[in-house]
Input
Amino acid sequence: MVAGLALWVGGLSLALAAVHPVRGFLPDLNFTLQGAGDAAVTQQAFAGKIVLMFFGYASCPDICPTTMAQLAQVTESLGDKADQVRILFISVDPHRDTPDILQTYVDQFDRHAIGLTGDEAAIAALARRYRVAYQIERPDAEHPDAPYEVAHSRGIYAFDQQGKAVWLAADGESQEDLLAAIRPLLR
Output
């Protein structure tokens, strides 16, 4: 099953070889999750900001850190306007990723990044809302520290200052294309 998801995920990445407008096709930004210090965080915390949302997990060995580094480079390239953008890293692995672990993880990349998680039901509902596929091999209750597999689809979701979905890009999209898609949204 994980292999099948990996093929689907790979196909999604190939299909998203550009920044695609999605206004009217994806729902507005809407969630209630947990942030650092177990604080409840909703979309209202990002009113007036451009949001770049990415789903992943903190112990991801390759795609997640690469994408976070890429998004950090994009915000850094915005100079003074970087304060208008927030990166939201949503964990699909609530078993390992506590809110504080996530915030420590995203802080390594960008001061504009926020790590968010929730219980299994909250993550599943948000993933369905934005058509994110993921699968977690159930952690072993008898060996909670044993490694387990996580697979997830890949994409960067952008929302304007009013929380409207505006575009979806591949995680491997060029920095130049991402900047070109963000700049028209800036004030």
In short: The two ends are 45 Å apart (CA to CA).
